[in-house]
Design a protein that fits this description.
Layout (H helix, E strand, L loop, with lengths): L16 H26 L9 H10 L4 H12 L19 H11 L11 H19 L2 H10 L1 H9 L16 H20 L2
Length: 197
């Protein structure tokens, strides 16, 4: 009687499994990374709004679109009354003390630098300044460029044919920060307008 030993048969290899598993893990990792990268963009943007009483009062007094004032405040300080920039611009509408002193003289009011931290005072002065810039430059976007980059820069750009075709409007803003500033303010004007519709 012969005894046959059971043969050691190797289990068949599953050749296609390993690459599929690797691809699946890679896709999961890519999906997770994309989710965490996109998550802040998927959440609705926080759009603060405070001090509406002062915004509507001084917008009416200086014949401004209140949504313009809201948008400037949002971009300048995100509605933080105590905000101070590294160069010293202060308050909701980020006014420089020397600019504010000049504006106070034109407005016929007393001024102390600490006044810029007061929301009502800051919005009043910032609104007056916006109206003045719009009166000087004639166009809202040009006035916004001056609010950010200064009147001297904007006057120089308007004089140069490369940035302005007509000497009144800017078809190109050479400072990337100012270009982005004007675009952001215009975007927030529409956001605040929609919020109030």
């Amino acid at each position: 009687m012969s005894t046959s030993r059971p043969q050691n048969r190797a289990l068949p290899r599953r050749r296609g499994c390993m690459p599929i598993l690797c691809i699946s893990l890679a896709l999961i990792a890519i999906g997770a990374a994309a989710f965490f990268w996109l998550r802040p963009r998927l959440q609705p943007e926080y759009v603060p709004l405070r001090y509406e009483e002062f915004i509507f009062r001084y917008s009416a007094e200086y014949d401004l679109d209140p949504f313009l004032v809201m948008a400037v405040i949002r971009v300048e300080s995100s509605f933080r009354a105590g905000a101070v920039s590294p160069v010293g611009a202060t308050g909701l509408m980020q006014l420089m003390p020397n600019t504010a002193a000049d504006l106070a003289g034109r407005m016929g009011i007393d001024f102390e630098p600490d006044d810029l931290r007061d929301p009502a005072f800051n919005i009043r002065m910032g609104s007056f300044y916006l109206r003045r810039l719009i009166n000087i430059f004639g166009h809202q976007d040009t006035a916004l460029a001056a609010y950010n980059a200064g009147m001297g820069n904007v006057r120089r750009w308007l004089d140069e044919g490369y940035y302005s075709d007509d000497g009144e409007t800017l078809h190109t803003i050479p400072f990337p920060e100012t270009r982005a500033y004007v675009a952001r303010v215009n975007r927030y004007i529409e956001i605040y307008r929609e919020m109030h519709s």
